[in-house]
Amino acid sequence: MSIVVRDVREHELDSVLALNNAAGPAILPLDAARLRHFFETAEYFRVAERDGTLAGFLIGMGAGADHDSSNFRWFRERYPDFFYIDRIVVASRRRGGGVGRAFYADAQSYAELRYPQLACEVFLEGTNDPVLLFHGSFGFREVGQHLMTETGLRAAMLMKQLCSYPWVHETYGNALPDVPWITQPRTSNQAALVRRPTGTCP
């Protein structure tokens, strides 16, 4: 069956929390309070459904977000404008089935209308070569490394230029057309729509 990517619903937060904390060392653990904070504030918080069951989730936010991750701060100290993927989790039984690519396609479709770049990190401890390969195949490149003071983990810091953004911003500015496929997932955060033109693709 097809993969459906949609906004998270409040009653699904317990399931999302369980998915996160069963994901293994590649994903930092969450507690219910922090997940609730993401639900209330994150610009992008979507889940994937496959065969009627929850298959994963992705949380993201713009550079202006009030987010305390040291990885997020690393990007903000170096880049003026980007969309940050804080975490993506795919249920173990669904890995390799296209859920991760569906999430990244959806997140990019959202971000490229509003931001010039996508940012994320991959932890370098352990066997994360497949994860790095996945990101590389999707167009991300390493722009540095960061040692997280809060965890002691080293991360490869990855970015991807969004080539559509300069044209979209020059053409529409801050007034994107009001059509369903453009409607931002988290409509409570209208400040995220205020963008400025920065950067172009090579």
Describe this protein's structure:
With 202 residues, the protein is α+β, with helices and mostly antiparallel strands. It has six helices and seven strands; from the N terminus they run βααββαβαβαββα. The chain has a seven-stranded mixed β-sheet with strand order 1-2-3-4-5-7-6, with helices on both faces. It starts with a strand and ends in a 30-residue tail after the last helix. Residues 187-200 have low confidence and may be disordered.
Order of helices and strands: EHHEEHEHEHEEH
Characterize the main sheet. Answer: 7 strands, mixed
Radius of gyration: 16 Å
Structural class: alpha+beta
The termini sit apart by: 37 Å
Strand order of the biggest β-sheet: 1-2-3-4-5-7-6
**Number of helices, counting only DSSP H or I runs of 4 residues or more:** 6
Q: Which assembly state applies to the chains in this document?
A: single chain
Second rung of CATH, namely the architecture: 3-Layer(aba) Sandwich
Percentage of β-strand residues: 25-35%
* Spatial shape: globular
Query: What is the strand tally?
Result: 7
Question: Helix proportion of residues, in percent?
Answer: 25-40%
What is the CATH topology descriptor?
A: Aminopeptidase
CATH class: Alpha Beta
Low-confidence stretches: 187-200
When the domains are counted, the total is 1
Question: CATH superfamily, please?
Answer: Gcn5-related N-acetyltransferase (GNAT)
Compute the average pLDDT.
86
Organism: Lysobacter niastensis
Pfam family, one: Acetyltransf_1
InterPro entries: Acyl_CoA_acyltransferase, GNAT_dom, UCP028520
Domain N-acetyltransferase: 3-164
